[in-house]
Amino acid sequence: MREPSERGAAAVEFAILLPLLLMLVLGTIEFGRAYNTQITLTNAARDGVRVMAIANDPDGAKTAAKNAAASVSTTIPTSDVTLSTNVCSTGNQVTLTIKYTLSTITGIAGPFPMTGKGVMLCGG
User: Fold this and answer.
1) Which part of the chain is the TadE-like domain (predicted)?
2) Is 76 exposed, middle or buried, given 0-12, 13-18 or 19+ CB atoms closer than 10 A?
3) Range of the domain at 88
């Protein structure tokens, strides 16, 4: 008696597992992009708040934050960069918040609103 042919078994198994593997790979890529964006926004907020805390320059602080976040997007509007105060008096805290909406590559989920926040004591 002849054994049944298994010629197509590998192709069927591959067809069943391919969507799962693609979701895993694309999910990893999307998570990596989101994590990188979050770190960049947080560092940008820290750079901006540092300028505000030392130089007491609100416009300079916003510009520094936007420049530091340029690797994420060069089109972040100034209205998405906010300061808790426009005058940084010695001994008080100042907070800079930068907002960005991350669109996804796959379009399966998202877009994701993200926020970077930096807090520093005025006066250096």
Assistant:
1) 8-50
2) buried
3) 4-122
